[in-house]
């Protein structure tokens, strides 16, 4: 692996972690949105709060990490994406503002305005991953020219970007439901465990369907990535499918033990399948990793920062999750 | 210039819209950033006092402040994320050419932000379950990483003022970089210290102002006095330090950023024996309506009236800061407020030394109540001096702001929309914080003996609050 490839892999690690953990937080917001009004819905909302309140800001940092590594290590790719896909990116940024503030405010606000804040939180939890998905889909289908300034509308209003948007939403909802099954189990609420289990099953089917539709759309619109996914990336795609199926079986049998790692692996494998599929490109067929990468000293700097972040932040992050799991935080 | 139609997306209009958008969102975030840097420290001082002296009032303050910290941190996290997007959405030209030079500072900031997010969560959600001193120590990393994060972000901003640590290739791109020189460029240290101390002043005076208002309304129990004293003491210690720091910063700007210094002091003709202009309008090559102190500018810049100061006329017309009056008045306002706050701090210190008590006159509390807003105004003014004073450059000497701006259309609309969202966000944040305060007050009034076990007997209830 060359040094630029290592830096690209670091970027992808950030993407993976954000897809899994950030995705789970967005998905939880979606479940909050569609929970409706009932006694059980309120219990579901309480569980969602309890699960994401301590961790969502830390999980959100992965997005900052991805943006920063992209502009520091691959400046031309960053500006090309930003000058082409500014519409969905600005909408995603708006969604981030509304999601975060909606969540933070909804408990602190007096009664009458609490419901709108909750709805803002839910709707933006749905829209943000959708627009992020369209950005990724547009990049995958080669809509971003190397010098930037691609079409601001048609670049992301296409079959591949829109399908990817739906896939992001479904995958987020799926991972969230799986996490919540486990959290319901830890809280000793079997009824809620079943509730989220059924939703996880439904979302797994939808996410699987969106993934298949996405691959078919890639076949006609993004041949390079399609060939990559069905060539060198195929083992990872198969691994993702197997993990997803495995989690489905466990969900159907109400075994909660290993569903969380399996669901995480299903998402992670697909993210890395894309990495392999679009290699050596940063922006498929317009800009390679080697062309986009910044100066050597900065690549080294990013690697050092990543290692330091791993040494410093991972134990801290582990402590937070441990305390949250042991219900030491409330 | 504001009458430019939003529909005409010519590049000059686009540039102005992008600058307003960046200025407004950054001006919003910088207040929250101050809270992120300094509020955890104020909260920890209260918790330390509470645990060390078994002071229930202090513990209650720490616990309540941590809830305010949580809300402010959440809003700051999202408004900070918007800035990350905006660096690319508004200024792709700069990120494209210089991202691999100055971007690394943001990568380091990411580590601190991560630590801050983790330990804020542990601290806030750990009040009931973590044992006493363990809970206190879980908050210490928040205060430390706030400082580290500020240093990183300020380093990136300082680099735009005094870019260093890179060589350009023939294609105009960065060919090589020395990251240590990038991060520790000439302006990093002074900009950071100035901002760091400012964060303590803004947070201290603003939090104290809330309790000053409460005390003016008659809630003068020990809890409110402590709620005033802890943040006010922090700010009162920071205020004199800031005057000294500011003096050093001004001389560094004089040395390293002559164009900015000329606009700050409204100097047109280069030469020695420059007057210090207080206030006034900088126009047509002269200052009008100011109060002039002969020789003082030269004296402050180089300890001698013989000190040469570069004037705007010596700088090529297209490289001069375009609005010297704004920069000059913002600078003067910042300095004036800084000295007023110093005066307030001294008043407090002298009376406290003599009587171990606050000044008796209500005018002290009134001044303290105004000090919070004043500190924010000074913060915004100082930031305007830095940013507007750098114009027309985005990277001084290397890239003009108009070269960096996005070609995308419709930024005026985005700005109008952002303005609406942020105003709403700011209002809701204020409503949320006020709502918290009201609920706490109601809780205290419901169980006064539980609320204030060590306080002197409470004053007779006022008629409107009596049950």
Description:
The complex is a heterodimer of chains A (330) and B (467). Chain A is an all-alpha fold and 330 residues long. Chain A has one domain (3-293): Formate dehydrogenase/DMSO reductase fold (Up-down Bundle), CATH 1.20.1630. Chain A is built from 13 helices and two strands. A two-stranded antiparallel ribbon of chain A has the order 1-2. In chain A, a hairpin with a 3-residue loop joins strand 1 (281-283) and strand 2 (287-288). Chain A is globular, with a radius of gyration of 20 Å. The model of chain A has no long low-confidence stretch (mean pLDDT 89). Chain B is mainly α and 467 residues long. Chain B is 70% helix and 5% strand. Chain B contains 15 helices and eight strands. In chain B, strand 7 (393-395) and strand 8 form a beta hairpin. In chain B, helix 5 (132-161) packs across helix 7 (188-216). The longest helix of chain B is centred in the first third of the chain and has 42 residues, at 11-52. Chain B is globular, with a radius of gyration of 24 Å. Mean pLDDT of chain B is 87; it is low at 1-9 and 449-467. Classes of the chains: A mainly alpha (330), B mainly alpha (467). The interface between A and B is large, with 66 and 70 residues.
